[in-house]
Structure formats: structure tokens, C-alpha cells
Amino acid sequence: MGSSVITARAAATFDPVGRSVATARAFVRDTLQGWGYTDVVDDAVVLTSELVTNAVVHAGTAADVLCLRTEDGVRIEVSDHYPEREIPLQSTGPDFGSPDRENGRGLLLCAALATRWGVEYSPTRKHVWFQLDLPERPVGIRSAGPLLPVGLLPVADERVRVAVVQIDSSGAIAAWNEDAAFLFGHTAEQVTGKQLTDFTAWPQTPGTNTGIVDALQLSRWEGSYGIRGADGRIIPVYASHLRVRDTHGEPSTVCLLVRDYERAVLQSPARTPVSDTNAESGKTDPFEIFIGSPAPDDLDGLLQRTVERARDMLDADAAFLLLATDDETELEVRATTGLPSARQRFARVPVEAGTGRYGSARMPAVHEDLDNVPGAVPLLGGTGMRSVVTVPLKVEGRLTGSLGVAAEAAGRYSNEEALRLQFAADRIALAVESARLGELERLRRGSLSFLVEASDLLAGTLDRDQTLALMAQMTVPTLATWCAVYTIADQASEPYLSYVLHEDEERIDGLKALLSKIAPPDPVPTPGARVWAAPSEAAHQAALRTSMRTLGLGETGRLGEPGRLGPGIRTTLATAAAVGGETVVLPLVARNRVIGMLTLGKPSDDHFRQEILELAEDLSRRAALALDNARLYSERMAISQSLQRSLLPPGLPEVPNVEIEVIYRAAGEGNEVGGDFYDVFPIRDGAYGFAIGDVCGTGPEAAAVTGLARHALRLLAREGFGGPAVLERLNAAILDEGARSRFLTLLYGELWPQEDGSALLKVVCAGHPLPLRLSQDGSVEAAAEPQPLLGVIEDLELYEQTVTLAPGDVLLCVTDGVTERREGTRMLGDDGLADVLATCTGLTAGAVAARILRAVERFAAEPASDDMAILAMRVPEPPAA
Fold it and tell me: Would you say the pTM of this structure is higher than 0.70?
């Protein structure tokens, strides 16, 4: 401390237990207040609390606290006894880590609040000290408010009028000064002896018992209400009530009242900041006085800093802060310290919980002993806290939250502490509300982006299983820790567990097993999320039974054979922890029918935020429609594919001494049959029919003509008609279809294997691409002549041509999807196909068909847009002798 003379010393050692932190805060506060250094008490307590926490909680050793007083300020030293400590290198510079870490914030606060500070290391201990200088004040000034520019001073009349009203213990007006008569129009004689409540317009809150009578019982109160003037108008005032005793010892209340816009006249001045810079500039930020500088830039950080400062300010064991919902009917836990925050976070409590005025969150409340009023503060149930003080956070008269501190001992707090906490709450309320609105705006933007992305993903698939997986993956872990989707096939079916997902993949099997053992939630169509307690109860019961078996206890609790902690037991306990929190169910409603349920869950004793539930409800509506669309698509696709498969040949027959290979590709997603078709079938002993055709167009309409043509060919051929007669009768059948008829190109032939190893073919080519014959010498030539296509004119005169395939020859038949394959202005064409076929000498029929297909696919980069069929027949060469 330089040359300063130490005028007093106080020291204490605190054991490495959590309660020591509060004891150390009380020690420092009592010491500095005893020395008269109240101006630096709050900063000293905050810094000591952080440093002692680092020692007794994080380092796990005892903490030595030494307070030294000088004429100019105070120096406090905190030492721990951690035996192994890494000595920081001077060259690396100080690194305090992230402010979000649970430990290590003490040095950050020292840098922000202390006048000077330092750290000293030895092999067995770390020694942190900080110095707080007293603010310099002119003689005669104990406390003063900040300097303000003239333009920011409150506006008054010719002089500021302060109405002084004194009320006796019965609530009657005992004194009424001239300024009160001027402001309100009532003379002292007119009001003396009457109840103050006859003239006040108190902002009574519906459903509560609070009022001005309650406020007058407080030792000190500040706030706004109205006074009825002589003309009946309500005059808004800002008042400061101070309860005193008169010369006879009787209690009475002095009320100082000014016009509401002159409230700065009565409001308590802020504590003078320690910083010399701020003193010189004349700028004081009351918010930063309580929170510290720099203030956290996120809402959670701000709320956490607030509860920690509130706890330190009142030497509490715990503190909590709740934010009001939009309708102000409930308060949501957003920050705690000294309480099981994981269990309490986002829990909700009603605003008007409890009995009497202390049950309302809209007024300051003090409970000297919660054991006498169980349930008055639901948040503290089962925590061991006995005394508590809570104050509201208000912005422009609206309840925006509640701040509270609690202690394990009874009788720790009185109205004085309530006023101190209310003063702090008033300073931070606007900043908290601004941060909350900023977070809400970010959540809304994020929700909109999330829903847009979710809609795009769900619209990108019509597969039912993929839709179920997307639903779960979009909710975990963004909205919930785990998710289960139940589906309902029809109104007579029970809900079926279709998909389960947990953010930890090792928990999925255990979670699925648990949900399979309990009855599914009721398929209620009512919109919104509803709590489902069954999973949590079932998990807890299973964990209890497992624990009893592990301890050697039977179902009745009698001692038995001790069990071992096996993998199954670990899974049960882990599952209980995973689903032990809040579980909600959202109906999946599509086309006025419940088609399933979306179940979301949290881990042990955790709760959902209302914003998350609203987002999940929006997602469930989109997911339900996507799931129902996928169901309809799957049903129709199954029907379509079943019908299409009935149009395909059952299989290729075994033709003696002839290899036959067919490759078929239908254009369009989900189509198995298009406008192109093929068939190979036995006609009679030793004779086989084959056909390959192309119906004008693609899709179901073309497939219908395909079915007509294939079945008609088989029937007519087996009736003994030759090739020309078969096609002429098929032509008549197509024309009979009228408006549903389609043009049809068709290559039809009959095949007779010969005893000498060759094959005899008779073919008719009706408007179809000509078949090509590949000889053993590599030459390629057309094997038929073109004739008119079917479905155009009534009287057709067709003829058949005879083709002989020698051993090693190949006959290739294709549809125009092969020859008309395009890449820009280029087309494969008949010549291109012939060139590819010329390279297939010596290949089997299957190899020929495969090479033709590869050539067609490689000819253009884009997928084929037309149906395609390839039929290759080859007479194999006899084996060598």
C-alpha cells in the first residue's frame, strides 16, 4: 500500500466448504462497516466473494482473508493453499480466460473494480490482493448525485413545490403543508383528520390485497400514484414515504410528494463511483455501479451477474431472477445462484402464488421464516432456504420480472434490505428488459429461419421414413434433448412408436425400450403442447427397482442377495436421467385428422421455454402435413407400381440355342413402365414370338396402350395368325380406343431355332427403327424394311421378311429412345448405333446389350428423357471340337 499507514487490521481463515463463501462476505462487510468505509463495501464484498470461491470451491483449500485499513482506503488479501500451481510465464502476458468460465472471474473483477491489484505465487500458495481507495469528497458532503447538463435537469414551475403530508398510525392526515394545498387545492382544514385513502388513486392490482395501507407500513417506500385534487382531477405524483416516531413514541408516516415529472427531486442519489475518470467527467451510470463494467452483452450473462451481485450485496446464500411472460401471469426462472439451477431453469411459477401481499410479485416481499408459510415461494421448496426477500422489476409500470435473495437462517431480512434490493432492481430493470426484447427478437428471427429451413427440408422428400427422420433430427438438439414420433395408420389403429432419437446415440436403445413398455399418449387433436408425465414416472420407477436390486433389496424392501452394477443397470439409470425432465406431446394433425404425435423431452428436472414450445407447435403443423403427403404418395406409388408391374412380361423364356437379353428403362421418377415395351414368349412347340415397340408419349397413358399391345400380341399369335395378320388386328384394336388411342411403332417377329445351329426369323417392322444384324465378320446391316406404323390408318397391308441368323450372328432391336439420344445438336442416330454394334463381334447377347446401353448413357451428360428398350438375340457358335 505504498507509504500509507495501516490503522487497523482484521484477519480470518475459512474452511474449504461452500458455506464459507457467505461467511467470508459477512466478515468483510462487517469489518468495513465497522471502520466506516461504507462507500467501498459493495465492491469489496463482490471481489472477496469471487476470490474465496476460487479458493474453497475450485482449488478445494482453506482461504485466508486479511483486511488492512489506511486513511485513504482498504487493502484485502485472499490466499489459498493449493500445493500444485503452474507459475504463469511473464512473456505470455496475463490471460484471464473466458468470462463465461465458472472459475477465474475473480481476477477479471479485480481488473474492473479495484484501484490496484496483484497476484503473488509461492510453491505452496497463491496470494491475491486488491486495493480500493475511498472517493475524495469536499468537506461537508457525505453523498452527492451526478453532475448533469442543464438541459437534463427536471422542469419545474417558479419553484419546486414539495407537498409534506403526515399520517398518523390510524392512516388519518395529521399535517398538510402549504405546498400540498397549492398542488391539490385542498386546504389543511379540509383534509385534517380524514383518511389519506380518501384522496389517493392507488394503482391497485386485480387479484391482490396490496394497497397504499400496506405501503405506509413499510419503513421506507418510493413510487408513483395519484392524488385527487379539489376539482376531481387525478394529479400524478411521485412520493417518498418515511415512517418515523413522534415525540410520544407513536408511529406516523411522513409523505413527501412532487409532480410525477419532478421525481428526480426525491429519488435517492446514486453511490459515488470509485473511478476518478468518471468523477472528473461527471458521468455516472447507476446500472454499471451495480453490475460492474464492462456489463455482459448477452441476456443470460447479465441475469447471472445480477443474481450474483444481489446475493453478495445482502450476504445471501442464494439469489434468483425470474422474467415475466408476455401476459404477466407467470414468471419464468432465468438465473439462479446457490440453487440447483439445472433443475430450476425455465421453470414457471404463477405471479399471484401464495397468500396475502407477500404472495404477489408486484410488490416487495419479506419472509422471515418460510417454515411458517410453506409454499409461499414455490421456487425455494426443498432447498433449505428459510428467509427471503423479493422485489419486482418494473418498466413503465409493467411487471417485467422479480429479483430475490434467500438465506438458510431465519430472520435475516427486514424492510431495509428490501428497499436496498428494490433500489438495485430499479437500476437494472430497463437494461434487463432491453436485453430480453433483444433476445426475443433474435429468437423470432432464428425461429423464422428455422421454420423456413425445416419447410424446405420437409418439402424435399416424399419418403415416409425419411420424413420421420427429418422431424426428429430437426428437433434434437435444437428444441429438445430427445424426441419420439408416434404414427397412427387410421382412426381404428393405436398409436405406433415409429421413430426415437436422443442427442446421445448411446441413449437411443434404452429410451426406445422404455417408451415401448408404456402406453402411448392419447391422440388428442387439441392444438398446443401438453405435459406427458408417463415417461418420467416409468423411468423413475425402473431406476428405483434397479437401485433396490443393486442394494440387495427385493420389491418389498427386504434385504436379499446384493446385485452387481451391470450394463443393463447402467442403461436403466442413464435412461432415467435422460427422460427425468419435462416431456410434452404435440399432435400431428393433417386434413382434420390426427395422424400421429410428436413427443419432446428434457433431461432430469429441466423445463421447456414457452418460445421453444411455440416453435415446436409451428414445426409440428408443417411436419404433419409433410408426413401425410408422404403417406399419400407412398400409397399411390405402391398402387402405381403394382399396376405397372402387371404390364411387364413375367420373364424371358429359355429358347434353345439362342441367347436373349433385354434392357429396359422407363423415363420419369417412379415409373417402371412407359411407352416403350418388349416381349418374348412361346407360341407353340419350336416357335417363339418377340416384339419391341414404342407408343407415342410417356407415362400412364402410354403404359395403358402398352398393356393392350402386349396382351393382344400374345393372344393373336397363339391363335395361329401370322405376323402381318397379328399387326393388322392390333391396329384395329388401337383405333377402337378412339380419343385414348396412341400411335404405335412395332417390330414383331417369330423365331424358329434350327437343327443346324442357326435360327430362322420372320419379322414385320411397322414404323419402328430397323433391326440391325451383326455378322461374324463385323459387318452391320438392316435386317428388315420399313412399313407404316400402327394406329394411324384403318386398312393396312403389311408383309413379313425372313432373316437367317448364322452361328455368331447378333440381331439388335431398339426403340427410338436409343437412336434419338441427343447432346445439344448432335444425335446418336442409326449410323452411330451401327458403329457401336460393329465393335461387339464375339460378345454374348448380354454383353452386346450392356455395351449399347453404356454408349447411349455416355453420349450425353443429362439423364435420358425418353423411354428406352434394347433387345439383343445371338446365335452362339458351336463349341470347338
Answer: no
